[in-house]
Amino acid sequence: MKSFLVIFVFSWLYGCSFLGMGGQTPSEHSKVLIDGSSTVYPVTEAVAENFGKLNPKVRVSVGVSGTGGGFRKLLSGETDINNASREIKQKERKLAKQNNIEFFELPIAYDGLSVVVHKDNQFIDYLSLEELAKIWKPGSAVRTWRDVRASWPDKKINLYGPGPDSGTFDYFTKKVNGQAGASRPDYTASEDDNVIVKGVMADTYSMGYFGYAYYLENKSLLRAVPIRDGSKKAVEPNSKTISSGKYPISRPLFLYVRTNSMQKASVRSFVKFYIENAEKVMERVGYVAIPAIEKKSVLSLVESFAVIQKKPQQDDG
Fold it and tell me: Residue 126, SS3?
């Protein structure tokens, strides 16, 4: 599978002095502020819970405003970390530069974006990427399942999916429709994947999409549709097909960390703990951990991170 190990550290960081982790420990009123992707949320929430058991004096807050919403908060200095289900966009890089915000990117896992239907929907054997584009493209004329294949029921398709602030939305539209953000607008959109789950659960002829973790959590209520890429065999999302890259809609997941936040012992400790321990929760929440060699490189960066100020801030009080 293609390696997604891409760690961006802005060029101005290279001239900074390396102070490492400094051996500092979080103080009594420490906090770590995180927001962003609902897809990455289950991993971060599980890691935060485990971290909190060992560091009860640190308050880790994890919000869900979508990858785009999370970037806006990170790049305005409101948060320390952004959960991201896509890479940062060029316009977001420009915003970071305008706001003098520096950051770095850490790949943490792989996800298989799952297309789901109601559990009682048995007429769909698979969907091709071309059929998905036919359904979801801007200006789509598809209104019923029969519009997709003549042998399927003449029943209205009710669509559910992430909103435009979601990295899942960006990835899906780019992969399926050829351009990030290109989508028909007449669907029920939400940054909260649980809303999509409930929508599809309640409608026999509905369809939606979201990260693999949310499918696993609700697999007794939903059915994941195998996806076919061109003439290849249709593939279902699971840990093996996602990690091997055989599943056509596989993608990397990231943490974006604000450089200034790494001056705080609470953030440094949490990020290091995250990289060291995230693999333990991956299987439980439904994602595939990055390979050991990538993990080693990511951890090396975190442990020898360049802190901008000569005298690091002990914590955020």
Answer: coil
